Amino acid sequence: MESANMYKELMEHRIALIAEACTTCGKCFEACPMTAYADFEGADPERVTKGVVDIIKGGAQTSEAVRWAMTCEKSGVCIDACPEDVNPREMLSYAKLKAQITRIDRGEILEASRDRFQTLSRTIRLLTGLQLEPEIYKNLTTVRHGKKNKADAVFYFGCNILQTPHILLSCMDVFDRMGLDYEVAGGVGHCCGIGHIRCGDLEGGAAMGRRSLDLFKSYNPESVITFCPTCQMQYTEFINIYSGPKEDSPPFVHITRYLVEQLEKLRTLFVRPVEKRVAIHLHGGTDGVEDNVRTILRSVPGLELVEIDQLSDHGYQCPTLHVPGAKKAVREKLFASAKSAEVDLVATVYHGCHRELCGEEGSRGVVVENFMSILGQAMGFEYPDWTKTFKLYEDMDRVLAEASELLSANGFNPETIREQLQKTLYS
């Protein structure tokens, strides 16, 4: 309960600071790219912003203020637009939580939180069972207490990257070649708690996040290297929820920043050119990532980086982009621009974006690869992207025929999971 109480205390403390600093000028609302998709025509920015402040203070909940909070996709565009010392993205997160918590029964919140976590767990386990040997999965997700009490870094890969294991294995291969002393932590057993928190279960989410942080700290690392943008955001913007003052926690460094900081060492590991014209699928919202990936790919011998027009201000990643019409707009703009620029491939940054976009390769005529796979090619290694391969098959009989032995080894009956696998791969 200590972490849960800390979360509530922090939230109310931050709300008080935000409510005091916010002048309800409406600049954040005016900058928000999602309002174009959510029927806000004619809405007064100052009125809507004041409505959000009212929500976080526990006051009245106007329909337009609630609607704006619910449409926030965390792109962070609003942060730069704010003339005051306010993080509007944080403000909208609290408003969304308040709106949910006050409208839904506590029992329903806990049930939704539990169901969401169980669904996530089943999905991840199924997709890893389709692609990874049981021992590899076990080694990636087992808590290693007692085996090691010091590491220079913890590579915290989150949960969902396990659905695209070739990206995860590529990261680790790069770290190994760079000589990094690190431990890995990830999987649903090491969740940051965001799924529970999004459902309104602050206690459950805070407890999960605290347990994971305690594991990271047990290795006395100089830093925690992250891949997942959600985990990075959760442990940087809301670190006090789990650990108290930020100085009590190791810094959380996104992998793209780490690679830029180690760029000279990275360059020495490239053994072959990657003769391709590459455009990057970009999202804002995570500090420095867009520029970091550009810097990393420009260092790859033979690679030509091509800038294209895209909607990078639409959310911080593809999977959480739920505002109707926005995700379709992102995809159409991305692939149209990529084809117009005659690029050889589109490089994804995040695993979630890759998972959603790689299946478009066949119909769009543009190859989709993750930037870590490109680094692997330059270093002379490559892990098969079975996620993309199976998506492009669009044939469940073929998928099961090729993966049945591995599925069985992971404890799945290929026929009884057919429907779930079909939904996971193709919906």
Q: How would you sum up this structure, described in words?
A:
The chain is an alpha/beta fold. It contains 23 helices and eight strands. The protein has helices at residues 2-21, 27-31, 45-56, 63-71, 77-81, 88-103, 106-129, 134-141, 165-178, 194-198, 202-218, 229-237, 240-243, 255-261, 263-268, 289-298, 326-340, 351-357, 361-364, 371-379, 386-393, 396-409, 418-426, and strands spanning 153-158, 182-186, 223-226, 252-254, 277-281, 304-305, 345-348, 367-370. The strands form two sheets. Strands 2-1-3-4 form a four-stranded parallel beta sheet. Helix 16 (289-298) links the parallel strand 5 (277-281) and strand 6. Helix 1 (2-21) packs across helix 11, helix 4 packs across helix 6 and helix 9 (165-178) crosses helix 20 (371-379). It is globular. The two termini are 38 Å apart. The mean pLDDT is 92.
> How many helical stretches?
23
Radius of gyration: 22 Å
Strand content: 5-15%
Question: Alpha-carbon distance between the termini?
Answer: 38 Å
Beta strands, count:
8
Overall pLDDT, averaged? 92
* Structural class assignment: alpha/beta
State the oligomer: single chain
Brief sketch in words of this structure:
The protein is built from 23 helices and eight strands.
What are the defining features of this structure?
427 residues; globular; alpha/beta; single chain; 4-stranded parallel beta sheet
Q: What's the SSE blueprint?
A:
Layout: H1 2-21, H2 27-31, H3 45-56, H4 63-71, H5 77-81, H6 88-103, H7 106-129, H8 134-141, E1 153-158, H9 165-178, E2 182-186, H10 194-198, H11 202-218, E3 223-226, H12 229-237, H13 240-243, E4 252-254, H14 255-261, H15 263-268, E5 277-281, H16 289-298, E6 304-305, H17 326-340, E7 345-348, H18 351-357, H19 361-364, E8 367-370, H20 371-379, H21 386-393, H22 396-409, H23 418-426
Parallel strand pairs: 1-2, 1-3, 3-4, 5-6, 5-7, 7-8
Helix pairs in contact: 1-11, 3-4, 3-6, 4-6, 9-20, 14-16
